[in-house]
Amino acid sequence: FCTPCLQECLKPKKPVCGVCRSTLSPGSRALDLEKQIETTETTCNGCNKKMYLSKMRSHAASCSKYQNYIMEGVKAVTKEPLHNTRNFPNRFTFPCPYCSEKNFDQEGLVEHCKALHSMDAKQVVCPICASMPWGDPNYRSANFMEHLQRRHRFSYDTFVDYDADEDDIMAQVLMRSLRDK
Description:
This protein is mainly alpha-helical. It is 46% helix and 6% strand.
């Protein structure tokens, strides 16, 4: 993760997971897992030396054969990328349409706009909606704050499969409704 994204996730008011955005709560150390890491043996993929998992990170940092092994993997993956990432819109972080701040997750954008722009009546394009397949990047909301509070109470990623077409989704909904009876 880049630093601005991590900082957004770790705000003191609501620290969230950088992947799934669920709330982080203070926990206790997983002592059973620590013990397992201390007692499980593994082999370095570079030099074939045996060691405990707990020592692997420091070994990997100094093992030139392991680093060559990693670089070979990187070269193999980067030769032919699976997708052209420019064709995929960013649906995870958004800029504020009022000011120059960037890298807000959906909840962060709502909080930011409520705190700093609640009285701004300027018509703006919703960056969240504009990133959606059905979104219109030219549509300016007459009341952006109300739009944010009504439309963006939840994250679309939880409920939407962006790759499925409308007919497939409708068929899935109908099948689920029959199963739920």
